[in-house]
Amino acid sequence: ANTVVLADSAALSPDLTNGLLRSARVVMDQQLQLAAAEIDRVGGRYTQLYNTVASSCEVCAAQPVPLWQIRARRVVHDDLEKQLYFDDAVFEVMGVPVMYLPQLRLPDPTVERATGFLTPSLRTTDELGFGVKIPYFFRLGDDKDLTVTPYVSANRTRTLELRYRQAFRNGDIEMNGAVSRD
C-alpha cells in the first residue's frame, strides 16, 4: 500500500512495527487523508488514530473546510484485513453534522470492489435545490455488484437510486432504476 505518514513527533520501535505519533496526518493511496491528535501502531498490524478527521477532499488554506468529512473519537486501520473501523463517527457536509454513526466500517482505499460507502456527492438543481447523495456499494461476487444511493434534497425529494451490474465472459449488463417521492 502507498501510505504517507507525517507527524510532529514520534517514538517508534527499532523495527517500526510499534510506536506512538503525535499530531499526525496519514494519506492512504493518495485518496484518503486522516488527521489525528495521536496515532498508536500496535503489533505491526493495527494503527489506532484518536480524535480523527477523515476525508478524500483536498484541504488547503483557501478552503479549510472540506466538502465532506468524518470525525471520529477513534479510527482503527487493520493492515491485514484492509479495513477502517470508526468509533463514535459524525459524517459532516461542509462542516455541518449530517449523521451520527456509533460504529462505521469502510474498506481502505487500496481495496477494489469491497462492500461499503462510496464518496458522497452534493447536487444542486433549480427544481430540487441542494441535496446530498450517499452511495453504498454491495459486492455480490467477483462478477456482480449493486450500488444503493439514497438522495435527499431540501425537503423536496426522497429518492433511492439502484444500479446492478454483472459481467459475463462475452459482455456485461447494467440496470439502473430509482424509487422517488417528490
Structure commentary:
This protein has no helices and 14 strands. By secondary structure, it is mainly beta. It is globular. The termini are far apart.
What's the SSE blueprint?
Blueprint: E1 3-12, E2 19-28, E3 32-42, E4 46-55, E5 68-78, E6 83-93, E7 96-107, E8 116-117, E9 121-125, E10 129-133, E11 136-139, E12 144-153, E13 157-168, E14 171-181
Antiparallel strand pairs: 1-2, 2-3, 3-4, 4-5, 5-6, 6-7, 8-11, 9-10, 10-12, 11-12, 12-13, 13-14
The first-to-last residue Cα distance is 44 Å
- Major sheet size, sense and barrel closure: 7 strands, antiparallel
Q: What strand order characterises the main sheet?
A: 1-2-3-4-5-6-7
Beta strand %: over 45%
SS class: mainly beta
Helix proportion of residues, in percent? under 10%
The tally of beta strands, per DSSP, is: 14
Stretches with pLDDT under 50, minimum 5 residues: none
Q: How would you describe the shape? A: globular
Cα-atom Rg, whole angstroms?
Answer: 19 Å
Order of helices and strands: EEEEEEEEEEEEEE
Oligomeric state: single chain
Task: List the total number of helices.
Answer: 0
Mean pLDDT: 84
In summary, what is this structure?
The chain is 0% helix and 68% strand.
Comma- or semicolon-separated keywords:
mainly beta; 182 residues; 7-stranded antiparallel sheet
